[in-house]
Amino acid sequence: MSSTPSTAAARPRAGAAVFRAEARLFRREPGGLFGIFVFPVLLLVILGCIPPFREANKELGGLRLIDAYVPVSVLLSMIVAGLQSMPPVLTGYRERGILRRMSTTPARPAGLLGAQMAIHGAAALCAALLSLAVGRLAFGVALPRHAAGYLLALVLAVLVSLALGALVSARSRNTKVTNAIGSAVFFPSMFTAGVWVPVQAMPHVLAEIVTWTPFGAAAQALNQAAAGNWPGWSHLGVLALWTAVLSAAAVRWFRWQ
């Protein structure tokens, strides 16, 4: 049955109310806030306190290891937001029947999904700015020299992390499965982002393979923009392609109930 004019008019207000409610709930979740905002910055500070990390490294073209780890910290916030924070919330809503009940109200389930993606995307971007600020103020890491290219790479990295999280939510029957799948994808994502070894320091063959992954391509794009160059179109293309493929798969398999 088609929507009445009054129902259609109520949906924007209902969507805004859902967004405000989800934002309040997000602020009250200490685990998600710690993982997105504190954990990546804490890792950056710990590494920056190690003297060899503050010395120029020939393998990195004269950069210090701490310089290479700022983009890693930026990506880590996005990985946590996309894989550890958002999927359990969406799956929990489906598991408890909240999405099914919302389908009978002006606040459509799609509005809830959009609110969650907007909130976690904004949080990841704010956490990225926090990592850049801490790197600059605490360890003298230069700010990105190509701001526009860096911003574009950041936005694409956020989109691909949210698309990956949406796919995890789509393929999970309950929160236990969500946590299992999220953890299984989380650690390889951290590796390709360069958490254990920066992409620039990886062996050539491994680095070439990693740059075809979402976060490996994002790491290279961010590094290039930080050095003052426009991110390689191949890396941006890999990010855009992964975003499109993961989003299409999430839409294909996502179930509200």
From TrEMBL:
Annotated membrane topology: Multi-pass membrane protein
Superkingdom in the source lineage: Bacteria
Sequence ranges assigned to domain ABC transmembrane type-2 in this UniProt record: 31-257
Alphabetical list of Pfam families matching this protein: ABC2_membrane_3
Keywords: Antibiotic resistance, Membrane, Transmembrane, Transmembrane helix
Chain segments annotated as transmembrane: 33-53, 68-90, 111-135, 147-168, 180-199, 233-254
Subcellular location: Membrane
InterPro entries, per the entry: ABC-2_transporter, ABC2_TM, ABC2_TM_bact-type, ABC_2_transport
Alphabetical list of PANTHER family matching this protein: DOXORUBICIN RESISTANCE ABC TRANSPORTER PERMEASE PROTEIN DRRC-RELATED, TRANSPORT PERMEASE PROTEIN
Protein name as it appears in the record: ABC transporter permease
Organism, scientific name: Streptacidiphilus monticola
